[in-house]
Design goal:
Elements (H helix, E strand, L loop, with lengths): L9 E3 L8 H7 L9 H18 L4 E5 L3 H12 L5 E5 L3 H12 L3 E5 L9 H10 L5 E7 L1 E2 L4 E2 L2 H11 L4 E5 L18 E5 L11 E5 L1 H9 L9 H5 L12 H17 L1 H22 L6 E2 L11 E5 L6 H12 L1 E5 L8 E5 L6 H17 L8 H11 L2
Parallel strand pairs: 1-13, 3-4, 3-5, 5-8, 8-9
Antiparallel strand pairs: 2-10, 6-7, 9-10, 11-12, 12-14, 13-14
Helix pairs in contact: 1-9, 2-9, 5-6, 9-10, 10-12, 10-13, 11-12, 12-13
The structure holds pyridoxal-5'-phosphate (PLP).
C-alpha cells in the first residue's frame, strides 16, 4: 500500500540537519554587494560569533565548500608532500580523510581502532613514544565519528602529546560535534579545527571553515603543498579577511541568524539540550535491545556521541529495509550505515534544531518499523525516552 507523504517530513540523518524557519528566511535575503560596508560589518560579526562557538581567538578561514573542502584546505595549508601524518582511526570519515591526504602525497600512518569504541589511548601513547625522531607533522582526529556515533577524547590526546613532548600539530575535525558537543579549541590546545555548516550550525550544506592557531600559522608559513583558492595567506590579504572569491552573502545572513539562535539559547544550554535528547535516544535503544534486539553501536558509554547514535541491527536483519519502511510508512528519514556498516546499522541524528517531541516522533517511527519488519526487540523504547525526558527537564 502506498502512503501519501502528508505532514512534516522528519529528516533524522546526522547532517544535513533541520534548518530553523528563521534561518531559511534569513538565507532568502536579497543579494547585496559583498564589499558594502554594512555587509562587511555583518561578515566580521559572523566570524566573531563563529570564534565564540569554536572557543578560539585565532584566525578562522572560510570556504564555499562542504566539509571535504575544509579537510583539503587544512592539509594543503599545513603540509608539504612527503610529510607524515598520524590518522587516529575512528570510522568511515577518518578513512575518507586518509584517502584525501594520500592523494596529496602525504604519508599517512593509521592508528588502528575498533570502530565500536574508537582508538585506545595507550596505543597512541606507544605510537608517539616510538616516533623518537619526532617526524610526525600532524595528528588528525575526527572528534565525533559520524559513521559510528563514537566521540574521541581529544582533550586527553592533547595532554598525551604534551606529556610525550611531541611537537606534532593536533588537527580536529569537529564537523559533527561543533555546536552540539563540548569543544573549546584554545582551552584544549587544538592547533587547527575543521568545521562545517550543515550540522550543529543548522545551515544549508556548502560552507566550511578552519580555525588555525599561531602554531598552525607558523607551520603554514613553511608548508608547500599547492593551493590558491584555499591559501590562508592569500585570504588574510583580502578585504573579507579569511575568505577568497565571491562571498556567498546568503550564507552569511543565515549564519548571522543561526549564531543569534545559539546565543539566545546560550551555548551551554544548546549542549545540554543535545545531551538530553541523545540520552533519550540511548535509553530507547537500550530498551529495544532486550529479546536480542538492536543495540547501540558504540560500546563505551563514556564515548557515546551526543549528536548521532548508530544502531546495530541483530544478525540477519537489514538496516536498509528498516530505513525503507520508516520512510515509506512514516515519512521519516533515518541515516544509513556507511562503508562496511551499510545494511548493518542505521543512524539517528539528534543534532541541530530539535526538541523532545521531534525525537519521540522518530523513536516511535523506528519502534513501529522494527515491528513491521519483524526485527526482534523488546518494546518500550519510546516509553523509556519519555520517562527520561520528563525527569531530565
Ligand atoms: N567529517 C565528518 C565527521 C563528517 O561527518 C563529514 C560529513 O558528514 C565530513 C567530514 C565530510 O563533510 P562533507 O560531507 O560536508 O564534505
Amino acid at each position: 500500500m502506498k502512503h501519501a507523504k502528508r505532514g512534516r517530513h522528519f529528516f533524522f540523518g546526522p547532517g544535513p540537519t533541520n534548518i530553523p524557519d528563521s534561518v531559511m528566511h534569513a538565507v532568502a535575503h536579497a543579494t547585496v554587494d559583498f564589499n558594502d560596508a554594512d555587509f562587511l560589518a555583518l561578515y566580521d560579526a559572523c566570524v566573531a560569533g563563529l570564534k565564540r562557538v569554536l572557543g578560539t581567538r585565532h584566525h578562522v578561514f572560510l570556504y564555499t565548500a562542504s566539509g571535504h573542502g575544509a579537510w583539503e584546505a587544512t592539509l594543503a595549508n599545513l603540509c608539504t608532500p612527503g610529510d607524515r601524518l598520524l590518522m587516529v582511526e575512528s570510522g568511515y570519515f577518518s578513512e575518507d580523510w586518509t584517502k584525501l591526504a594520500c592523494k596529496f602525497g602525504l604519508e599517512v600512518e593509521t592508528l588502528p581502532a575498533d570502530w565500536r569504541r574508537g582508538a585506545d589511548l595507550a596505543d597512541l601513547r606507544r605510537k608517539l613514544a616510538a616516533d623518537t625522531g619526532k617526524k610526525l607533522r600532524a595528528l588528525c582526529v575526527v572528534h565525533n565519528e559520524t559513521s559510528t556515533g563514537v566521540r574521541l577524547p581529544i582533550e586527553e590526546i592533547r595532554r598525551m602529546l604534551d606529556a610525550t613532548g611531541h611537537p606534532a600539530l593536533l588537527l580536529a575535525d569537529t564537523i559533527s560535534s561543533l555546536g552540539s558537543m563540548p569543544f573549546s579549541m584554545d582551552d584544549w590546545g587544538i592547533d587547527a579545527t575543521v568545521g562545517g555548516s550543515q550540522k550543529g550550525l543548522m545551515l544549508p550544506t556548502g560552507f566550511s571553515f578552519t580555525a588555525a592557531n599561531e602554531k598552525a600559522m607558523q607551520a603554514h608559513a613553511s608548508a608547500s603543498l599547492p593551493r590558491y583558492y584555499f591559501d590562508w595567506t592569500e585570504m588574510l590579504g583580502r578585504r573579507q579577511k579569511g575568505f577568497c572569491g565571491t562571498v556567498p552573502v546568503a550564507f552569511f545572513f543565515g549564519l548571522q541568524k543561526a549564531l543569534c539562535l545559539i546565543e539566545e539559547e546560550g551555548l551551554p544550554g544548546v549542549l545540554a539540550r543535545h545531551h538530553r535528547l541523545a540520552e533519550g535516544v540511548r535509553r530507547a535503544v537500550a530498551a529495544w535491545s532486550g529479546n536480542a534486539g538492536p543495540q547501540l553501536f558504540c560500546t563505551d558509554p563514556a564515548r557515546a556521541s551526543d549528536s548521532v547514535s548508530a544502531v546495530l541491527m541483530p544478525d540477519g536483519h537489514d538496516a536498509e529495509a528498516l530505513r525503507r519502511t520508516a520512510l515509506a510508512r512514516f515519512n521519516v528519514a533515518l541515516g544509513g550505515g556507511l562503508g562496511p556498516l551499510n545494511g548493518k546499522v542505521f543512524r539517528i541524528g539528534h543534532l541541530g534544531d530539535l526538541n523532545e517531541p521531534m525525537v519521540l516522533g522518530v523513536l516511535g517511527a523506528v519502534e513501529m518499523s522494527l515491528s513491521l519488519n519483524r526485527v526482534p526487540h523488546a518494546p518500550g523504547g519510546v516509553d523509556a525516552a519519555m520517562a527520561w525526558f520528563a525527569e531530565a527537564a
